[in-house]
Amino acid sequence: MLTPQQHPSRLLSDYVLQLLSPVEVQEVERHLAACDECRAVVRHERQVAREVRGALLRATQPAPGRLRQLRPTPRPPRRPFLSAATLRPVAALAVLMLLFLGALQLDGPSGNGALAHPSQTSLAVTATVTPTATQAAEWQNQEMATAAAGPSVLRRLPAPLSTPLAAASIERAGS
């Protein structure tokens, strides 16, 4: 316990900063009630504490607008690669290319914009007669008969078999 003659100078700054236990706070307050000199020290300590807090606030608080400068700027959201905005110009370019290539196809050799004439296509039809065993036997018999008749008899070849291709070429030739 403190007497009025003992000054608690080491406790006064802790008292101002509210760091004392409840028992020590009561002792210091009893002493301050009787001692003018210690009250003046506590007033001075409180003034210093206010000035220190104010200086800390000013030092740690950025100037107006400075905080905005220190913050990173937010990135705009990324658009997907194949979005409608990306595909529209590509589709328009594809249509223009098709129109351009189509216009090139319209230009014939004369360059007058008429349709190009396709090249002439010729159709050649050939028919090969491959005799069956029965036909081969008949032809052999005919050859033997002509050989028996003698050299003066004209040798007659059998007529070719009619095939669908041969018939079509005969019809075209006739028309």
Give a description of the structure.
With 175 residues, the chain is mainly α. The protein has 7 helices and no strands. It has helices spanning 9-16, 22-34, 36-60, 66-70, 84-106, 133-149, 164-174. α1 (9-16) crosses α3 (36-60) and α2 (22-34) crosses α3 (36-60). The mean pLDDT is 75.
Shape: rod-shaped
- Report the span from N to C terminus: 144 Å
What is the residue-averaged pLDDT? 75
* Rg (CA only): 61 Å
* Total count of helical runs of at least 4 residues: 7
Structural class: mainly alpha
Return the string of H and E elements.
HHHHHHH
Uncertain stretches of 5 or more adjacent residues: none
Largest sheet: none
Strand % is under 5%
Helix content: 55-70%
The total of beta strands comes to: 0
Which key terms come to mind for this protein?
single chain; 175 residues; mainly alpha; 7 helices; 0% strand
Question: Care to give the gist of this entry?
Answer:
The chain is built from seven helices and no strands. It has 175 residues and is mainly α.
